[in-house]
């Protein structure tokens, strides 16, 4: 295993006591991977702010033993400078040094984007307020953001985030390696040298994945759609196939030079743990 390869896992903030206990267990089961960080999502307009804070503070409190950082997501759309400033101060006071900075989606019914229209403005604000205290991750879209006017404008938006002070990028999940390789090559040709970590999305339910992918602009290759559709209600065969597929897919990304893998773990241990075990990425 390359010493440069990093692992990270993404969770969503639990809302119930049972959910909190489940996330705690999942986190403990994934600790043998020695991820660089566990990230926790942030609802539209900050709708899960308190839950996100509770989750990342607990992760950060045990980081002295696990050496795994907590990385809260921070979406800015629909917010104010004062509100973002308060959140940053709270994270700083809790020893958090990493943030995933995102534009986010406007909550239903809200039309005013607030003080920040785009993620690069949030990155600039974080740097102005906190200097180099935070390592800042931003989003990248190898297959182009679904709301972008063009591939060119989408790439320029990404470059603005990098120029504003982003340290690395986490991609939207994808199943087309060529899209990732082309995006990385284009970044290098334009002087962008931050790590671009591919996002890996588990496939637990084909219908749900298809709906979600349609909304976020991810293309599921036709051959993969047909193969997944073949399984119908045979969940056991579906899981076996997708585990094999994602393991091979992840290995191809590593072979292509990906500096790390970011798993959208969905508050579940599998298939992240098994994929990493098969790839030899577990660490004593």
Write the layout of secondary structure elements.
Blueprint: E1 6-11, H1 17-30, E2 37-40, H2 49-61, H3 63-66, E3 69-75, H4 81-93, E4 98-102, H5 119-130, E5 135-140, H6 151-164, E6 168-173, H7 177-189, E7 196-200, H8 206-216, H9 222-230, H10 235-255, E8 260-264, H11 272-278
Parallel strand pairs: 1-2, 1-8, 2-3, 3-4, 4-5, 5-6, 6-7, 7-8
Structure description:
The protein is of the alpha/beta class and 284 residues long. It has helices spanning 17-30, 49-61, 63-66, 81-93, 119-130, 151-164, 177-189, 206-216, 222-230, 235-255, 272-278, and strands spanning 6-11, 37-40, 69-75, 98-102, 135-140, 168-173, 196-200, 260-264. The radius of gyration is 18 Å and the shape is globular. The model has no long low-confidence stretch (mean pLDDT 92).
